[in-house]
């Protein structure tokens, strides 16, 4: 029996709760995972899991064993990584789940510089705005704007994600002016569907807070699609500045309600506690902080052109 491999599989199954999912992550058959767990249980002399047709959960002994094993496995993996790095440049695969608003249009230039500096590090990028558990899905890191869904995850905030309402010049010219947040109620709107506040919006101009319920004509889980809706002159849309800035600066979209701000979200890197000592992940996150500071370049340019309020959102 390969004790360490069995212990590694045990930790993964304990965290994911599925033999089949661990097999998929490791690229082996489910029977291999089952065999390694059985070997470990035979070695320690007690069942480590309660199994049913619906789920797999730790036994009482299994929970105690997991508390110790997870730290050992994480430390062992760290030592292997440190030994590899001591021989040269860091290497290995990083699996990253990234928000489309950041990845599309911004991540490629960053990765070009990063991989030139660390050519041994490779990436498996999944681009999606779903909120996931990186442990259960087998990712090293998730880039998202919502809070972690588990206490077993670490959140590292990167930069604020500010939002603006905007429309095409043609739409602006052909419709009544939008001078107050309540004016939005008389316009066709395009709004992102996954904000936790749903249809309730808060606007703040520094002296007044206005709460408005907005019912959109177009609702979508894709801010890029909403941007296309706006460019076609079909609606006033709310977009994160990371997605809207280029079209706004080019004059293809015009911000409205420039004196008002919506509460920002934070783009964060979320990762398992067991990954906190990973050299590859640490390098990746440290360089993200350098390239995407708390005052991201697209916001700085919008503020300089008086297209975004200069009052800080945080």
TrEMBL record:
PANTHER family associated with the record: HTH-TYPE TRANSCRIPTIONAL ACTIVATOR TTDR-RELATED, HTH-TYPE TRANSCRIPTIONAL REGULATOR
InterPro entries xrefs: LysR-type_TF_proteobact-type, LysR_HTH_N, LysR_subst-bd, WH-like_DNA-bd_sf, WH_DNA-bd_sf
Domain HTH lysR-type: residue ranges: 1-59
UniProt keyword annotations, A-Z: DNA-binding, Transcription, Transcription regulation
Gene3D superfamilies recorded: 3.40.190.290, Winged helix-like DNA-binding domain superfamily/Winged helix DNA-binding domain
Source organism per UniProt: Thauera sinica
A Pfam family: LysR_substrate
Family note: Belongs to the LysR transcriptional regulatory family.
Keyword DNA-binding: yes
Protein name as annotated: LysR family transcriptional regulator
């Amino acid at each position: 029996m390969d004790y360490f491999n069995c212990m590694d599989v045990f930790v993964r199954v304990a965290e994911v709760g599925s033999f089949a999912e661990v097999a998929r992550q490791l690229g082996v058959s489910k029977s291999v995972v089952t065999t390694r767990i059985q070997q470990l249980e035979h070695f320690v002399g007690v069942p480590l899991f309660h199994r049913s047709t619906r789920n797999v959960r730790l036994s009482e002994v299994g929970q105690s064993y997991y508390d110790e094993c997870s730290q050992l496995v994480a430390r062992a993996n760290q030592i292997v990584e440190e030994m590899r790095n001591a021989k040269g440049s860091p290497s290995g695969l990083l699996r990253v789940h990234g928000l489309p608003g950041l990845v599309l249009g911004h991540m490629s230039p960053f990765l070009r510089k990063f991989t030139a500096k660390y050519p041994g590090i490779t990436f498996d990028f999944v681009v999606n705005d779903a909120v996931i558990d990186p442990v259960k899905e087998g990712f090293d890191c998730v880039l998202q704007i919502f809070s972690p869904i588990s206490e077993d995850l670490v959140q590292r905030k990167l930069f604020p994600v500010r939002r603006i309402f905007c429309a095409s010049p043609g739409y602006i010219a052909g419709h009544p002016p939008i001078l107050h947040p309540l004016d939005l109620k008389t316009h066709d709107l395009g709004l992102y569907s996954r904000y936790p506040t749903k249809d309730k919006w808060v606007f703040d101009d520094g002296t007044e807070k206005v709460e408005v319920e907005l019912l959109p004509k177009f609702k979508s889980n894709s801010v890029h699609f909403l941007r296309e809706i706006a460019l076609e002159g079909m609606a006033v849309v709310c977009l994160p500045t990371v997605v809207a800035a280029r079209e706004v600066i080019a004059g293809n979209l015009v911000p409205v309600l420039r004196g008002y701000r919506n509460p920002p979200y934070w783009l964060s890197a979320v990762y398992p506690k067991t990954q906190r000592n990973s050299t590859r992940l640490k390098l990746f996150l440290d360089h993200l902080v350098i390239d995407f500071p708390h005052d991201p370049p697209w916001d700085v340019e919008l503020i300089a052109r008086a297209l975004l309020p200069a009052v800080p959102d945080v």
